[in-house]
Protein 1
Amino acid sequence: MTTQLPPIELTRIVALALAEDLGRGDITTDACVPPNVMGQCAFRSRAELVVTGGAIIGEVFRQIDPEVRVHDLVLDGTRLAPGGVLARISGPAASLLKGERVALNFLQRLCGVATVTRRYVDALPSGSKTRIADTRKTTPGLRALERRAVRAGGGHNHREDLGSAVLIKDNHVAAAGGVSAAIRRCREQAPHTSRIECEVDSLAQLEEALAARADIVLLDNFDDADVARAVEINQGRAILEASGGITLERITKLAQLGVDVISVGALTHSAPAVDIGLDWED
């Protein structure tokens, strides 16, 4: 089950999308569809997908016309075969037409993220405790929605933003004068409730990060042999996260090697939109 997006955030995101598409009105619909005509439509999958984004449908049409009703809504995380119905909407036909494209744009994007995430999660060995996590490589303005889609696909979320957790990257290390110095300074400044994560790009830096008592170490662009060696060196002292150059084909092997987290930017920055249509029903 996924957590709910804060209503104020959902309202803001949908309002921006509607202003973009409907800000100057819909001259086609207003010209050819009488206001008293009613209709019903079904959001239908054209390909196999993992469902998410039901709340978006409701918010899009709530802002356009409170008379529109959403029903037969499929739960987030559900696998849907081609031809399956994600949801139905009914109400004034003009209102359905005005919100169609915006609702579909959101659904196709978010279901795409959830579907790709599920492929990565499914690649984990049976019984594995390794987590598949997203990154901050999200579409500007849509991070909250895309992170929720990752959870719908069975994945986990990395830090929400720059203020939510300490993550020392390679450029921090360079600017701070080394791994040890960066970790020490962060530990002095960070709240006692915050873990310290440090990115390393070599086994030597891993040793240094462990000596400085990093809580989490991100193995950046390590090949499988170096990941195996890192797990051996670590001996359970820190949480190990593999990231960089992660492909679907590597997931099983990385989990078998014993990393705790595999973070994958492709869950959000490269997920293709899935094909969903809105079919008019009598």
Protein 2
Amino acid sequence: MVHTSLDTRFDALIDPAAPVRQIASGCTFTEGPLWHPVERHLLFSDMPADVRRMWSESGGVTEVMKPSNKGNGLTFDADLNLLACEHATSTVARFGPDGTRQVLASHFDGKELNSPNDLCMGSDGAIYFTDPTFGRMEHFGVLRPLQMGFQGVYRLPPEHRPGDEAELVVDRSLFGQPNGLCFSPCERFMWVNDTEHANIHMFDVGPGGRLENGRIFADGIAEEGRAGRPDGMKADENGNIYVTGPGGLWVYDFEGAKLGEIALPEMAANLHWGGPDWRTLYVCATTGVYEIPMRAKGREEQFMRPR
């Protein structure tokens, strides 16, 4: 596919003619791609099908968990325990290497969370996650009444213990449907996008991890006639932002200038860096998963560090 360059800096991130290789197909709605840095495989969610799958170059696609509580966003902690947002249970859960499941977050203010959607971890071990309502809808989750009354962004501090309530880190009226989120390389800033309003907010990470000085980083990430809105989002090592949008992925520089678009054959839902040098983008897009070679390298997260 031919990608769209709007700035010469885009060509330094990806070859405009870079191939888009499909590595999985026939799924229901793929989400949460995550590269294992030691075992060299990709985990991903097929949310409506209630299954977690794995892909490797040698083994192809296999099922690793069914049911998966309609899992969505995934990440690893520093010890390579798997962290998962679960729509069906409205929780953030941690899975040990032996598969043992532990609930990290399920409530705020004595009420069930809506349906944790995506998450990321800081270098200090704090976990941030978004909580829209998609997991309480049919198809993407389990239809059931809402308890919260708003859609928030939360933090689990490094000293968080299972059973402790999550900390709300933004004003509860700010977001329609908060979704993808990621740190800047220096971790002084965080971006959170809003699927409903088709925009991205940028925040300073303040004392105690609260997100402060929120401002619109990019908006208008929606078009009539082209499917796609802000959903998954990641940064590269230089602070450029890659977010799902109409036609595939939209790429912005640190100041919010749009650099170009990475074209996908299906509506993109989420993405993550992978490969031996973290210069491959893995994109979950509706019924398939795609692999794209990049010139850019992903922002280093705890689990990505050499070991």
Protein 3
Amino acid sequence: MHTPVLLKEVLEYLDPKPNQNFIDATVGDGGHAKEILKLTAPDGKLLGVDRDIDSIIRAKSNLAEFADRVLFINESFGNLERIAEENKFGAAIGILFDFGMSSSQLESSGRGFSFRKDEILDMRFDVKSQLTAEDIINDYGEPELCEIFKKWGEEPKARLLARTIISERKRKRIKTTGELVKIIESVKRHFGKIHPATLIFQALRIEVNEEFSEIEKALFAVSGIIKKGGRAAFISFHSLEDRLIKNWTKDLSKKGIIKILNKKPITASVEELKNNPRSRSAKLRVIQIT
């Protein structure tokens, strides 16, 4: 099973107790959810949401032992308010958002999330969505590509990369991650641990899935979904996400709607970093509804 990041810290802050109800808004493979369900036995319920149907299938298998204590919904967490209302899940004491990708998505989805594998340029979490990474790379103009790379990837060579991509696609349509990586590597040399394609792949994935608008919709709904005194935990993996969560919590804290439980984001322990290098960039922020 996918190893959940910052598991000890999430459980410490959300503090699940017997018979309490929780929402895992990004259930993934069910790693965090499994431990929450153990602690909320015998009658605590969990609403598990994910827009990737393959993740829902894996989570159902991994959480089969909890049977009817889990309700799975294959939708974006941007629709969380409606999902909770439709499923009469208004008594939750806590909610978890993990904005990272599971190792299953990176390694075996076949949708081109990883620059380390040569796959189709897809990058959709929800395969029912229309827009793919291939569409963006081949159909967007230079200003649009440049804007995406700058805004969502904070890529310093955004303009040169956009120009090079457009030049290359005139020869033939760019269809695979391998083809895109070669183009990126022709512009950016490999220094240190970060692969030259990292920021571009991040930017494309965010654009394809409209990730930030979905996060903003979910944040707007949080205070109305969980009980007074309930908690919400957010795990982010890059500075853009963390900045969004930080600014949102500051704003609501000033209005007296929430209490910030950790002024600085919690990061992985030395032990976790050894066992799960993927946790290196994870940051946890937790709030409480007042």
Protein 4
Amino acid sequence: MAIRSVAELPVEGKRVFLRVDFNVPLTPARGVADDARIRASLPTIKALIDRGARLVVASHLGRPKGGPDPAYSLEPVGVRLADLLGKDVILTDEPVGDGARKVVADLRDGQVALLENLRFHAGEEANDEAFARALASYADIYVNDAFGTAHRAHASTVGMIRYVAEKGAGLLMLKEIEFLAKLLGTVEKPYIAVIGGAKVSDKIAVLESLSARVDKMLVGGAMANTFLKAQGHKLGKSKVEEEKLALARSFLKKCDERGVPVLLPRDVVAATSLDASQGRTTALADLAADEMALDIGPDTVRGFADELAMARTIFWNGPMGVFEKPAFSAGTFGVARAVAANRRALSVVGGGDSVAAVEQAGVSDGISHLSTGGGASLEFVEGKTLPGIAALES
């Protein structure tokens, strides 16, 4: 099914509702801590402004409880967006209502309004029809550039679209679909998946799906502990999903039968506490009873890097350890550098921590595509139909 590009839509002089993903971290002083998601949608926003659209930008931020909460106001986001655009951005005092309606009605060609946090209204996540109709009343044309929310059937990503005359995808959304779709088609081999993060339960579906397509899987993070214990290793006080050990054994057996090697950590960086200022590198067999595995060790990093150097297609999602703690971030940074070093491979990195590691390591120019969607990219690669994308098809 075809999805129209924003470039094909007759936006000149029209009210364009642009759904973006500005769910960004804020500083204690209420500034934007990381504007990567805002910058990712700038090409679409600037293209619409340059063509004289009357732009209504909408996003959620955080998890307010279905009502206004100053802690989750989009005000700092609007300030940062105005700085990046070099022009005024008018923030409404509510996502829908008389105040928002007047701001939208008063827009002129090339002007930008930012609706207050969509989740300040319970109708957003409930995909409520009345709320969807209210949002649609602000628009002649609907454009979705929020890939990170495409796996959610909310009012602003699905419900309102049927009430708007024309619809299409923003430049970021189209880029996400283009690159992630390559992973579902015929890819160059070897195809290696690197999967990390905390829980097997969060990612077993994508692991199962990937195991049917990849040549090798590299697994790190706390989820590797569950697989290691399923193999009989003693993990001390490491985080392990005890109730998922049978599932882990079943998955490893399936991969073995398919001839898909699953590489797990050979050594780890351990400590007795998450608050430790430094860790101890140790072989798995020498992990003490009071220690936790909190990162993959340097021997494992070298082994993973050797595998990644031979790959022609790479998908990476999830950190290799407790990435937010400097003492346990070396494994994640090591994998980031290894993925980026292979310039011959198609490399796609998804998930906030993985993307952050690539950027902090200064190697983002070595990655084919950094996905802005964590859960959305996983579900796409799993082969699921994402409601926010399906709603754009015509």
